[in-house]
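#structure-requests
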Amino acid sequence: MVSHRTTARGLLLLLAAGVFAGTAHAASVPDLTAFPVTGNVTYIDDFGDPRPGGVSHQGNDVMSVRHQPAVAFEAGWVEKWSHPDGAVPSCMLVLHGKSGMVYWYINLNNDLGPGYDNDGRCRKAYAPGLGYHDHVRRGQLVGFVGDSGDANGIQPHLHFELHTAGGRAIDPYKYLRAAKPLLFPRPRPILGDMTLTLKGATVTAKTAGAITVRTKRILTDPLGLDYINRRTVTLDAGSATVKRKSSTGSLAATTVSQAKVGERVRIRTAPFAPGWARQRAGAGELAAASILLLAS
């Protein structure tokens, strides 16, 4: 892993002046939290590792890919920061948890395209419409993974810090390990039902009324997100329209029981009200509206 400093120590004076005001009561991390990046990640316990300038690493680097959704670890309210950090500002978000704990999201996205263009500044760091001091729910979209600040030009990741109400940084590793990975981020505001499209998935099991797939990419409506998330999901398929697409492009009606393990499939869910259980995507929490089996 590349060594780099991602803690924006220069922000401490600002935070000490106001970020932790009014949160001096005892606090602890809630039992049920949302993993702060939606999709596939890697991370180690690098809290306390040495960094340039004689400082130690004050969080864990959650390695991901550019533009992956970042979500609220728990319910709370947020502050957005654009902190000067050399030639490329560090795009940051501070989440004040309902529990009293405080979470720092650092190195959020500042790129418009797929590369290191830095053209988005911090306008592309945060969830659309997210305002300063807005309240958010657990698992709600708050921003996007990137490489802003002193992480510029290296592997995009979320530098995630956990602070007590008094401002002391503590190792977030065990809390990340206990957090629940989500299939999709919750939109804000809630404007009604949403749907997901599971794109590039592979069938791993099927029955007459259910289909289990290994997902690859998830498309969300609303939010318009398209991101990588490889995991196994079982959907209720009892009311789904099922078709098979041949190598020539023709479509033929079929049934879920005729699906073949290992074949590619594209699934659109039935509209649903987003909530914690559906975000975790346990078996049968989501229902398929259409299933398209694809020729190899």
